[in-house]
Amino acid sequence: MNNSDLAPVLIRAVEEADSSERLVDAVQELAAARIEESVPTLIAALGYNNPGAAVAAVDGLIAIGEPAVSPLLELIDDYNYGARAWALRALARIGDVRALDTLLEAAKTDFSLSVRRAAARGLGTLRWHQLPPEKLESVQTQVLEALLLISQDPEWVVRYAAVTSLETLAIAIPAAVNNAATLPDQASRITNQLQQMLNTDVDLGVRTRVKFAQEKIQQQQHQEVFPPKKKLQDTDVEVPHRGGGRR
Questions:
Q1: What does the pLDDT look like over 121-153, one tens digit per residue?
Q2: What number of CA atoms fall less than 13 Å from residue 218's CA on the CB side?
Q3: Residue 180, phi-psi category: left (phi > 0), alpha (psi -120 to 50), beta (remainder)
Q4: What is the pTM of this model?
């Protein structure tokens, strides 16, 4: 049975599930199939008030990836908070730049710490290659401004997520932006914020994550300044034959 034949069968199983357990099983099977036609049904499953089904649906949407982004943005339910929270988790994990505005708003203003955390993490996993080069610098600056604000969130898990995204952004900026004049400013703002958090954050877990981020950034900077030497090929060096020297 091909995908075009399988999709209606799996979708109908979700729609006709008559118990919580059967619903979870049906959504799991639908998600595992990774069929693009299943996206609206998976999005609907986010609002069924069934955490098991929602987790499976999120996994399925993430696996489908970019084709799920537009439907998620169009069908996101602002009136059903639970469904909206699950949808934001899916968007954050997919990392498509079309979700940028939604992630920025959620990371800065959502009342749920779990949603803010997911959105903050999503800002660090955006796929920068999807942006046209002329927009890259301004968007990264926008994300940086948001992360600097989010790193002051009252909840430690949100600050922790902000640190992970500051790390990935610090590594992405030198590789993605060609305007050398902007690099020192953006990089220094990240390193300064991380150092401030290391000095002042009240949570040990956050401070530990900051130290790890600083080490990763320093490693990246070291590799850029001192790229690893290429291993010499066997033909590059002539090895004397054993016993071939003068006696």
A1: 999 989 999 999 889 989 999 999 999 999 999
A2: 8
A3: alpha
A4: 0.80
